[in-house]
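Target protein
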Amino acid sequence: MIRHIVMFKLIEFASPDDKTNKMEEIKSSLEALKDKIDLLRYIRVDFNVNPEETWDLILTTELDSLEDVKAYANHPEHVAVSKNVLAPVKADRACVDYEY
């Protein structure tokens, strides 16, 4: 099994409420992929509660193999969320994949 973890730093927002609303949209959009992409064994999005840290949210997914990670990354449903929901507000991204 592969655990695929991605951290996102978002752009500055006009207000904390705007940021919270966008983070909730990101969370619901990504977590909805579980019902659309059969390769996903697990998916969860969590928010950073420590304002002194760099990253705003973390995506944790589990898939069977690195090949499945690649297929997930290129799946049209995932690409749509990445392009339409995340990309407009993404300032930075970090990722790690590990086998367990």
Remarks:
- The CA atoms of residues 7 and 58 lie 4 Å apart.
- The chain has three helices and four strands.
- Strands lie at 2-10, 42-47, 57-63, 90-99.
